Automatic annotation (TrEMBL):
CDD domains according to UniProt: DHQS
A GO MF term: nucleotide binding
Protein known as: 3-dehydroquinate synthase
Superkingdom classification of source: Bacteria
Any one GO CC term of the record: cytoplasm
Function: Catalyzes the conversion of 3-deoxy-D-arabino-heptulosonate 7-phosphate (DAHP) to dehydroquinate (DHQ).
Cofactor(s) listed: Zn(2+); NAD(+); Co(2+)
InterPro entries, alphabetized: Dehydroquinate_synthase, DHQ_synth_AroB, DHQ_synth_fam, DHQS/DOIS_N, DHQS_C
Keywords noted in UniProt: Cobalt, Lyase, Metal-binding, NAD, Nucleotide-binding, Zinc
Residues annotated as domain 3-dehydroquinate synthase N-terminal: 62-174
EC numbers on record: 4.2.3.4
GO biological process annotation, one example: chorismate biosynthetic process
Provenance organism: Maribacter hydrothermalis
Gene3D superfamilies: 3.40.50.1970, Dehydroquinate synthase-like - alpha domain (1.20.1090.10)
Length: 353
């Protein structure tokens, strides 16, 4: 695969990824190379990663606990303290080896430690490869509220090694696939239809490059999310609220990000049908495609009301208005739309049928 050039860095793949990493480390002569992992990537990915590094460097490994529940300021404080205790200075670098939680948090930690040190992201999940790999968004959750604290800051490079996906359980893979399907819905109808035919992880790997190219194209046009970059949030306004609600509820089993976003895309597909004229055929296509891969979730009226209250914290909101991304057609989105409250209940009713 050819490298993808983003605004100020490149996304490298497979052998080119490690070649680029080794060239960069030899050139920069960092004081200490820190590698941030969780318990899973420490065991399953770190040995393979270290085996590909050439040269004699000082390494320090920092481990955090995996999971969205740990994407918070307390974990950041622990990493900042570890960096300080292990002698990190402004000429150190942090390599984030893990999924989206780890690369989001690690990027934020690096961007704020001593007012910013270099960092490299090595995404190891499908979700982080096709979503967190491009765009420079770093950050953490505020309680159960998703991505409330953070900065946009670019890594030195991103290294995508699809073989790391072989370490994942199937649920994690399918979660990441939701973001790939989203790329088709917001930018490329033929890509959407091609992804519907994917049957295996090996099939998914063949499409990773296309998804990253789609996201990179959007981000380059709007690095700070003032206009077109908002389309990447299709399914996320309701999806994030659902994810937050299930995260904070003791009575609910936590949903993975992609599972919640898949649900959000069905709901926002219904809103698109009602408000922008998305055809009934396209709406059925969206619903059937996601329900064929993602388990249906049960909602009570109280659940729905609580979810709708959480939407006021969505980062796309402005001037007290909850802003949505909806589809005119598959591949053609529209941003900054407000929704009549009764349509939300209609959307959930449509999902339940």
């Amino acid at each position: 695969m050819n490298s993808i050039i983003s605004d100020s860095y490149a996304v490298h793949f497979n052998e080119k990824a490690f070649q680029s990493l080794n060239t960069h480390l030899a050139k920069m002569k960092y004081s200490i190379i820190f590698i941030l992992v969780d318990e899973n990537t420490h065991e399953l990915c770190l040995p393979q990663f270290m085996a590909e590094i050439n040269g004699d460097y000082q390494f320090e490994i920092i481990e955090i606990e995996s999971g969205e529940v740990n994407k918070n300021i307390e974990t950041c404080v622990g990493v900042w303290e570890a960096l300080s205790e292990l002698g990190a200075d402004r000429k150190s670098i942090l390599i984030n080896l893990g999924g989206g939680v780890l690369t989001d948090l690690g990027g934020f930690v690096a961007s704020t430690f001593k007012r910013g040190i270099d960092f490299i992201n090595v995404p190891t999940t499908l979700l982080s490869m096709v979503d967190a790999s491009v765009g420079g968004k770093t950050g953490i959750d505020l309680g159960a509220l998703k991505n409330q604290i953070g900065v946009i800051n670019q890594p030195v490079m991103v290294l995508v090694v699809p073989d790391f996906l072989d370490t994942l359980e199937n649920r994690q893979v399918i979660s990441g696939f939701a973001e790939m399907l989203k790329h088709g819905l917001i930018q490329d109808a033929p890509y959407w239809h091609a992804l519907k035919e994917v049957k295996s992880l090996e099939d998914m790997k063949k499409h990773i490059l296309t998804s990253i190219q789609i996201k990179n194209k959007v981000v380059l046009q709007d690095p700070t999310e003032q206009n077109i970059r908002k389309i990447l949030n299709y399914g996320h306004t309701l999806g994030h609220a659902i994810e937050s609600y299930f995260l904070e509820s003791d009575a609910k089993e936590m949903l993975l990000h992609g599972e919640a976003i898949a649900l959000g895309m069905i709901l926002e597909g219904y809103l698109s049908h009602k408000l922008l004229g998305l055809t009934a055929e396209s709406l059925s296509d969206i619903k059937n495609t996601f329900l064929s891969r993602y388990d249906k979730v049960e909602f009570s009226d109280n659940d729905i009301e609580s979810i709708l209250k959480l939407m006021k914290y969505d980062k796309k909101n402005s001037h007290g208005k909850v802003n949505f991304v909806l589809l005119k057609t598959i591949g053609s989105p529209q941003v900054d739309l407000q929704i009549p409250i009764e349509l939300f209940f209609e959307a959930f009713a449509y999902y339940k049928v």
